[in-house]
Amino acid sequence: MYAARNQFFRVRRVKVARVVCLFLTLLAFQVRANEDGFESLVAKGDLAGKKGDLAAALKAYTAAEKLEAANSTNLCALTKCFCDLMHSTSSPELQQELARAGLQCSEAAVRADPRNATSHICVAICYAKNFPYVDNRTKVFYSRSIKAESERAIELDPGQDVAYYLLGRWNYGVANMNLLYRGLVRIIYGGLPSASNAEAIKDLKRAIALNPRRIIHHEQLAKVYLAIGEKELARHELEKCPGLKPLDEDDAEAQAEAAKELATLAK
Questions:
Q1: C-alpha to C-alpha distance for 144 and 120, rounded to whole angstroms
Q2: Distance CA 36, CA 29 (A)
Q3: Using an 8 Å Cβ cutoff, are 118 and 78 in contact?
Q4: In degrees to the nearest 10, what's the CA dihedral of 63, 67, 72, 76?
Q5: How confident is the model at residue 172 (pLDDT cuts 50, 70, 90)?
Q6: Burial of residue 170 (number of CB atoms within 10 Å: 0-12, 13-18, 19+)
Q7: What's the N-to-C CA distance of the chain in angstroms?
């Protein structure tokens, strides 16, 4: 009887051990699944981006996009990654490919969620990034679209400082366009909406009020002041740039440009 009972407990222990082993295997599998899931990949991309590891960020966001192709937030993050990577190469061909990839990704973000203000900002940014690689007719279309997408972003979220920055940059660019080129645009392509340096200043001041830490806002406002001959106002904005920490690659580039502009004003 004791032998039978011992045999029973041995069999029972084996069965329990197998169940525990199976449970632990399933648990480990679930952990791996969670680690490689969409939210985890996006988190990895965000962390890599904060560390400046753009290659790792691109890998994580791309893997996440394969899991959820219509997630606007991830598509916006992937778009920014493409744009930031443009600063890491001096190859015009690679920069062009990255600009194209960013535009395609941003357009997908808008299709995924037309009411996501950031996706509209991403499209506007990518139009600007693609400017050097397109013909004049396309530049006119992109220019109009930058204004329209920025205004749409503000309509959806008035707190979007980058949208105001883009409008300020657009106003500055159009207002100071070469007269000959402006005439050609009007004759051949039907012209562009009206723009002025006064509107550019207004937009950029609004961008700064929303986010004074962005170097691009101060450096662009300084450019407008220089265009209208206000050197001291320009100097005041440029002097703010060295003490700010770049929030992304565009900020870092603007900080370097601000240093050059300050040096020029000092001569």
A1: 13
A2: 11
A3: no
A4: 0
A5: very high
A6: buried
A7: 105
Distances (CA, A) of 154 to 116, 117, 218: 11, 7, 20
For residue 191, the 8-state DSSP code is -
Instruction: Tell if the pTM clears 0.90, that is, is over it.
Output: no
CA triple 79-93-128, angle to 5 deg: 45
pLDDT at 267: 79
Distance of alpha carbon 190 from the chain centroid: 31
Burial class (CB in 10 A: 0-12, 13-18, 19+), 178: exposed
Write the pLDDT tens digit of every residue in 87-140: 999 999 999 999 999 999 999 999 999 999 999 999 999 999 999 999 988 988
Q: What angle do CA 205, 237, 153 make, to 5 degrees?
A: 30
Give the pLDDT confidence score for residue 35 in this predicted structure: 58
